[in-house]
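Thread title: Can someone regenerate the structure for this chain?

I was given the following input by a collaborator and told the matching structure tokens would be attached. They weren't. Posting the sequence so someone can regenerate them.
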Amino acid sequence: MTPEIDDVDRPIATDQADQLRAIETRLDALEARNQRVEADKNWETSLLRRVLIAGLTFAGAVTYLTYLTYLDVQPAWMHALIPTGAYLISSISLGLVRRLYIKRD
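Best answer:
Regenerated them for you:
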């Protein structure tokens, strides 16, 4: 059954209007989600993120190696903690920077 030309001016039935509102609500939610995903992708590939991780890793390594030099202790297993600790620190501390980065868009 195809709608007639005269049917265009006829008001939409209540159940159809409710369905339309539900679809619009879902569409709005999907668009908001897509914006969040895009912002996350932009953050993951941003130069700022890379520079911050590199800087934190460098600062952690310098601090740690200065500490080892001061103590004159250099077991190999402790050197493996540098990248591990730097990663943990960057993943914890970059949350705030990430939120600020996403808000600027």
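Residues 51 and 57 are 10 Å apart (CA to CA).
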